[in-house]
Amino acid sequence: MAANLTLLAGPDALRLLRERGLRGEDVDVVPGASGGPKWLVLAGLDRALFGDLFKDRIRPLHLIGSSIGSWRLACLAQKDPVSALRRFEAAYIDQRYPPKPSPAVVSEMSDRILDALLGDEGVEEIIRHPWARLHIITALCRGPLAAEHRHVQMLGLTLCAMGNVLSRRSLSLHLRRVIFDTAGDTGPFAAWRDLPSDHLPLTAQNLKAALIASGSIPLVLSGVRIPGAHPGVYRDGGVIDYHLDMNFGPGEGLVLYPHFYPYVVPGWFDKPLRWRRARPENFRRALLISPSAALVAKLPGGKIPDRTDFETMTDNERIRAWNKVVIESERMGDELQELLATGRLVDHVRPL
């Protein structure tokens, strides 16, 4: 078993890995999950994957994410993904807030972080990328969930949560999935029927707003109106697709999924519902790569970062802890590169 990585593969992925190993040209889809600061535990792994694995890519690679996952994948879709990741990492860690910041204050900080991630040329590089196809998941709100008043919005969230206990399909009463696709290319995701879904072209005019909307956590950030899109208020795509338990489309290639956990939770409201986890048929060709329990134990507090860190630590304490997480995360990237170089990765893969 690998010391720092947990490697889990569906049966189709396991068969391909045994035949060929992990090759960038065999990957069809890279998903990116919601999770806020949890992404920092993947920083070293992301740099290893995004910096080397796809450097000789020619055919389209579909990158689909919600919330912080879409921001990570927006780094991969730039000309120099490792530099974009490092800009993102530095700006994200350096967040500082007054006590109990308003959604407007948090949204303003998110806007600054995204500006750092994109740099001067990021928007054009993403839109014109020769092979990366970015797909950004957002949630178009209905009823009280679209309100900015805290108590009204809380009512909308409560109604969502109550209906979701019975069925995820009830989310369609309050939310509509809207995916922004590079150059209007819906890729393998056009046939989704689990919930009402629309696809809109991702353009230079709406890219930044779509990314901001995809990460706009209810009650924490302000809702977003996206130019040229359906009228209304957009919020965090992770409310609908938290860890992306979805049909990744037809094909024989891999779904390469760097993830914080060795399991997948379908929606934001499913977090406390331990009986609701990913459908195995959606992950037959997926390779899930997550931190090992041993690596997590080495992190500050023995845990992956999360949004409670803003409440339980001072800014300086949190920044020190998060920088330590990033340093520890490099063990994941180093180990992956070693397994790829020696051809031993498949020896450490377990069935998903």
Automatic annotation (TrEMBL):
Species classification: Bacteria, Pseudomonadati, Myxococcota, Myxococcia, Myxococcales
Domain PNPLA: 35-241
Organism: Myxococcus stipitatus (strain DSM 14675 / JCM 12634 / Mx s8)
Keyword hit for Nucleotide-binding: no
SUPFAM superfamilies, A to Z: FabD/lysophospholipase-like
Domain of life: Bacteria
The keyword Protein biosynthesis appears for this protein: no
Protein name, entry field: PNPLA domain-containing protein
UniProt cross-references to InterPro entries, sorted A to Z: Acyl_Trfase/lysoPLipase, PNPLA_dom
One Pfam family this sequence matches: Patatin
Biological process annotations from GO: lipid metabolic process
Keywords: Lipid metabolism
